[in-house]
Amino acid sequence: MFKIKNAKFITSALNITKAPPDSCYPEVAVMGRSNVGKSSLLCSLTNNRKLAKVSQTPGKTRLINYFLVDDAWYLVDLPGYGFAKVSKAEQERWSRSMEEYLAERRGIVLAVLLIDIRHDPKASDLQMLEWLRQRSYPVCVVLTKADKLSRSQMANNVRRCAKLLNCSADELFPYSSANGYGREQLMAFLGEILAEASVPLTP
Ligand SMILES: Nc1nc2c(ncn2[C@@H]2O[C@H](COP(=O)(O)OP(=O)(O)OP(=O)(O)O)[C@@H](O)[C@H]2O)c(=O)[nH]1
Ligand SMILES: [Mg+2]
């Protein structure tokens, strides 16, 4: 079974030019709307509640945060998009800097897109997924906050979401950072991706 033994914060970067050297480690990039539960997912996967700052205030994570896992791969917490309370100009700056990041960062082996399981994907989620698909990124969609729904509501929403995202239900990972639901499945998937990852080492 794929396991995470330790994870440590490496650095925060405002944009790709400030990021640590590319392709030294394979990267799993976590993205999604503000407040969807990206930082919570990182804490849950690594079993470290203090690893990434979780906040009830959307827009908390404004930098690209790098966490080195088991000295072998990066978990990357990207700034959330679609946060209404920041100015249009700032939202556009974020979205440009994220697109630039995803377009240029060669070490990314998986894009993990988070969507709140309680709500239909928003236009910004569909746009992000479309964008990732066009660039042939390996993508997985994690449906967060699964603890907020009953099992039958969860199953319904997974089916509905699969339809809206034009994918099959088993490409979606319902997940709860609050009670660990779905953690095993997601970890197994990460294990498969990382086992296949061959990132050229650059000095
Ligand atoms: N019940 C429940 N609450 C969750 C879960 N995941 C996150 N939350 C809550 O949702 C809020 C936002 O969580 P964060 O992990 O900070 O979200 P984020 O996507 O990193 O947000 P930004 O950094 O602002 O983009 C916090 O109040 C979390 O406690 C979950 O699985 N279940
Ligand atoms: Mg965050």
Please, could you describe this protein's structure?
This protein has about 200 residues and is α/β, with parallel strands linked by helices. It is about 35% helix and about 20% strand. The protein contains five helices and seven strands; from the N terminus they run ββαββαβαβαβα. The chain has a seven-stranded mixed β-sheet, sandwiched between helices. About 35% of the residues are buried. The protein binds guanosine-5'-triphosphate and magnesium ion. Guanosine-5'-triphosphate binds next to α1.
Structural class: alpha/beta
Strand order of the largest sheet: 1-3-4-2-5-6-7
CATH architecture group name: 3-Layer(aba) Sandwich
Count of separate structural domains: 1
**Name of the CATH homologous superfamily:** P-loop containing nucleotide triphosphate hydrolases
Distance between the termini: 31 Å
Round the mean pLDDT to the nearest integer and report it: 90
CATH topology category name: Rossmann fold
Q: Give the number of helices.
A: 5
CATH class: Alpha Beta
Order of helices and strands: EEHEEHEHEHEH
Strand content: 15-25%
Extended strand count = 7
| Gyration radius, rounded | 16 Å
Biggest β-sheet description: 7 strands, mixed
